[in-house]
Amino acid sequence: MSTNVATTDTDEVKQELSEVIANLGKGPRDPDAMRKAAERMDRMREATFRRVGLLDVAVPFIRELRDQ
Predict the structure, then answer these.
(1) I need a labelling partner for 26 at 20 to 30 A (CA). Which of 5, 11, 49, 61 fits?
(2) CA-CA distance, 14 to 16, in Å (whole number)?
């Protein structure tokens, strides 16, 4: 099975991460930034589902660990 990994501009990712970290301790969260992040996560989830289908791995592993 081959895995296609989308490449991202690491400078862009680093900049975004730096902004998030800088804003963590500044009080209330930015609703617009939260909405944009949620939309981006939804698009990534849908793209992953279209590419590989349902990833049902966590629940079986948790059940297996619980039964030990």
Answers:
(1) 11
(2) 5
Is-contact 30 23, C-beta < 8 A?
A: yes
Predicted TM-score (pTM) of the model is 0.55
Alpha helices (runs of H) in 1-68, residue ranges in sequence order = 10-23, 31-52, 58-67
Structure tokens at 6: 């989308």
Rounded (10°) CA dihedral 34, 40, 43, 45: -80
User: 46-53: long-range contacts at Cβ-Cβ below 8 A with a sequence spacing of 24 or more?
Assistant: 51/4
